[in-house]
């Protein structure tokens, strides 16, 4: 607890809220399976704390981006299916086998490579196919599928247990790209032997039943981001970020605040300096655009964001609420990750994955008997 006393910034991650979000999606889409995408350390929020809690809640399938993430996750969820989205890079096949990681095979080259390995070592895990339906990033193209279906021995050797694709515009339910990709996915998977199918991530789930197939792969929605922008967020907020006020100073016109003197003081007032900056993932683009909250009162960010410090105009906050040591809410229930992202000119995914290493981190989890620091 001494840690929290000396903390100048505190990041609270509500693991129970992540679990509640997974349960909500899971019951919404049943009997379709809800996997959990836990890549990039659960979008920066701590896979060690979150993945075991999801497994305990009944989540059976997890997706990571890299084989390293898969190996780390295997120790946390010994029983679960772990899919590795990048697939095997040549030479890493043994790691997949040793840690029972399911490679997502993204090209005919990856498939034939895996088939050769699978024939050679009998302990090779099953695999998944990623089919490109319009993203043009990863995945098998139609001409590769045509060649693949002409190689039944290869198809048998790699033991596919899932065929998946990924939507490019699922955050926009009016985009014609969604239906086009859905149709392409149906057409291309029909070329393959029957197997479970997966198309939707967080956004796709909310495009409707047709997009859900046998398994969905939510990430962002689990961590509280709005899967259906423009509509009220159905997910629970997971993250709270607080920064400590180090100083409060009186200012008056014609003074300025911060680097570049970008904020000119227009009236007699008060500036609070908070111990969070761009080195903490508090984006520099929030300069003169962001907000904080003190006891629910909104305060504008003024001046530029520095590496370790940010300044706020607290003139309108009652004096007894603003003094050195007060924690200001930067991300929280009345100012979510998506709001901060909009102010910073980015998306919630980037705000989450940028959350800095300097914040003291606290995970709230009833499964572990209360808060753990
Ligand atoms: C990251 C990722 C997901 C999860 O997407 P969200 O929008 O965070 O739900 C699902 N599938 C693939 C292939 C991904 O790369």
UniProtKB/TrEMBL annotation:
It catalyses: L-alanine = D-alanine. Gene3D superfamilies: Alanine racemase, Lyase, Ornithine Decarboxylase, Chain A, domain 1. Keywords: Isomerase, Pyridoxal phosphate. GO terms for cellular component: cytosol. The keyword Isomerase applies. SUPFAM superfamilies: Alanine racemase C-terminal domain-like (SSF50621), PLP-binding barrel (SSF51419). Its cofactor is pyridoxal 5'-phosphate. One of its GO terms (molecular function) is pyridoxal phosphate binding. Belongs to the alanine racemase family. Catalyzes the interconversion of L-alanine and D-alanine. May also act on other amino acids. This is Alanine racemase. It comes from Paramagnetospirillum kuznetsovii. The gene is alr.
